[in-house]
Amino acid sequence: MDLSYTADEEQFRTELRDWLAANIPVEWAEAGFWRSLDDAESFRLRREWEASKTAAGFSGIQWPTEYGGRGGTPGMKAIYDEEMVRAHAPQTVNTLGLTFLAPTVMAIGTPEQKAEIIGPMLRNEVIWCQGFSEPGAGSDLAAVATRGVRDGDDYVVNGQKIWTTNAMHGDKIFTIVRTEQGSERHKGLSMMLIDMNQPGVEARPLKQMSGASEFGEVFFTDARVPVKDCLGEIGQGWRTAMLLLSFERGASGVGQYTEFRRQYDEIVEQMRRFGRSDDPVARQKLAHCLVELECLRYHAMHILTQVEQGRDLGSESSMTKLQWSETFQDLWEAFDDVLGPEASLERPRPDVDLAPFQAQAMWSRSVTIWGGSSQVQRNIVAERVLGLPR
Amino acid sequence: MFFALTDEQQAFAETVRDFVADRFDLDAVRAVVEDPDGDGHPLTLWKGLADQGALAVLVPEEHDGLGLGLLDAQVIARELGRAVAPGPWTTSVLAAEALRLAGSPAQQAAWLPGLAAGETVGTVALRGEAGSWDGRGITVDASGERLSGTASPVDYPAVAGLFVVAATDAEGAPGLYLVEAGAQGLAIRDQRTYDGTARVGAVELADTPAELLTGGTLSGGDAVAALMARGAVLTAADLVGGAREALTRTIDYDRDRKQFGVPVGSFQAIKHTMADLHVGVTMAEHAVLFAAHALDTDDPGADIAVAVAKAKAAEAAWNATGAMIQFFGGIGFTWEHEAHFFYKRARRRAPLFGSADEHRERLAVLTMD
């Protein structure tokens, strides 16, 4: 066991921490700050700030320098995730592009695609959405019905995508389209890079149970996509999609732990404020969450080790997803157990604003659904890790 | 970042695993379980473990030990838990740890080589009936170097040659004391347990001559707390080993067992439970590794790490061994089947050195007060 980072990695931490300290306004760390802005203003602020971070050399941490990345190590990426949370840095506005699309383009994109996609994405000049889920294709992704028909040098695309993060802010969307008419399931699909700023594409917000609109719907009505904007081979969209999703298997747990652990401490603070920290049942419930949170931290170190050793994580990422999402949800249920009736009040006292807490509590219902529901993850663990029969 | 066992530590684990599988299989375990009047201390296993260095693992090299850390010791504990192996390994290793942490050079020289070689069996008596596992549960009083009171439950007192007893002196200060087998006023009362892979008794002391462990790195309440923490981690490792083996056996069975014309393991009700158990046991394995390393390196977060490991391991072991009975179905509830070895061992050990509830309360103290 050696839980330290290398000297280079610690040097990177120092540089990043200094930059973040100098470039994040103090008020951004206040609980209600981001909620006080309207959606467009919040997005604009985050978009510009992140672009300045890129200019300072603190984006694309693990990406090769030829793509504008920093050429760093997996350890540096883990440190980056941790420090961003510690500094109350705003969340990225291009998460799906940065996490999934960019590494896929680096792996299988044409030289033109590499040049046109990666740099502008890193500088937030182009915001990317992901077009996978459809009303009839949720957990069963291969049921995709959105179709594309060849017309000269273009495909003409019709159909609907749903649960699209940043749908209202997106410039382009990487989309699974059925390009072979009459094909079924995993066959005959293609990964299309579709310009959302055209008459044939309409995005509509979806109001979530929390009241926020992180997700939206995207409708394609005779949308036109040049053939050159297909990523990977035509008809091999499923393979491209699986490659793309494999990039989720990084060491993001270090940052998640840091964030959730801070939330735990904030809940404890409220627990004390409302005189509930002596309640033995509340203490047990919250301490149970701490056990699971600490396990997430150890698991993140295990995963980082695997990545550094060059091992393929395979279906282990399903275990990571289960651990973090179920723990996060339990933590925010414990919030209500701990506070009792006060937990549901935005202003239980004139000087106490619990709205940011309630926003997290409501958001926690979504995390066991998106990115592969807990039920799908359990199937994957049972079948691919434990070898139980289908 | 290297959060894993080294190749050497993995090889050590395999050596112990192969040895136990080869020399002490489940039939041998059953013989011990079905002989409750026996001492539960098979010498073939004990001598073999001594030959492997499994008893010397934490003892410093100057006292004929291997001078390794808790991370290495938990490797052995896990394998013994996996094999539901009987015998006083955990408690004897802890007695040696008490000497290493709190004993004078002379006390160490007198006892550690014998404990390392397995010539002496040690045991620890750290709390009494209804007492907590944090030093407040001590029920033995020290008057100078004479002890009175009853400690319980104590593992393998009948075969122990050396007892490390936690006692409170006239000023109320806790400390660790050595009592030799056969000492005046020392009586062992067999308490019997449903866990046939262990033998347990009460240690009754009546003005019994003892020797205070003193002159070492730690003393008093610090020594008691350090020993409790090590006991918690080694018990957690044993629990995790048993949990992993129970889960593996259950999955193997449910992959083949057919009902309604298909393997029962193809039903999602079973799959999802197995997936959750696998995640839980895996997290418990991580937690034990981290806690052992934290104690080895005096990590400032060691208190939290130990409480997390014991709470998580107890829960994972109870869940996985209970599921073993459930998912083997009726056969899993029979005496002939081995499921009850795993279940009873987990159920008995779960509260030792602090239950999951007690360790969660410890976390509450550390983070909420």
UniProtKB/TrEMBL annotation, chain A:
Ranges where the Acyl-CoA dehydrogenase/oxidase C-terminal domain occurs: 235-386
Keyword Transmembrane in annotation: no
MF annotations from Gene Ontology: flavin adenine dinucleotide binding; oxidoreductase activity, acting on the CH-CH group of donors
Gene Ontology CC, one term: plasma membrane
Keyword Glycoprotein: no
Necessary cofactors: FAD
Positions of the Acyl-CoA dehydrogenase/oxidase N-terminal domain: 6-125
Family: Belongs to the acyl-CoA dehydrogenase family.
Name the record gives this protein: Alkylation response protein AidB-like acyl-CoA dehydrogenase
UniProtKB/TrEMBL annotation, chain B:
Domain Acyl-CoA dehydrogenase/oxidase N-terminal residue range list: 6-119
Listed GO MF terms: acyl-CoA dehydrogenase activity; flavin adenine dinucleotide binding
Keywords annotated in UniProt: FAD, Flavoprotein, Oxidoreductase
Pfam families in the record: Acyl-CoA_dh_1, Acyl-CoA_dh_N
SUPFAM superfamilies, per the entry: Acyl-CoA dehydrogenase C-terminal domain-like, Acyl-CoA dehydrogenase NM domain-like
Cofactor(s) required, per the database record: FAD
Alphabetized InterPro entries for the sequence: Acyl-CoA_Oxase/DH_mid-dom_sf, AcylCo_DH-like_C, AcylCo_DH/oxidase_C, AcylCoA_DH/ox_N, AcylCoA_DH/ox_N_sf, AcylCoA_DH/oxidase_NM_dom_sf
UniProt xrefs under Gene3D superfamilies: Acyl-CoA dehydrogenase/oxidase, N-terminal domain, Butyryl-CoA Dehydrogenase, subunit A, domain 2, Butyryl-CoA Dehydrogenase, subunit A, domain 3
Domain Acyl-CoA dehydrogenase/oxidase C-terminal: 223-364
Family: Belongs to the acyl-CoA dehydrogenase family.
Name assigned to this protein: Acyl-CoA dehydrogenase
Lineage per the UniProt record: Bacteria, Bacillati, Actinomycetota, Actinomycetes, Pseudonocardiales
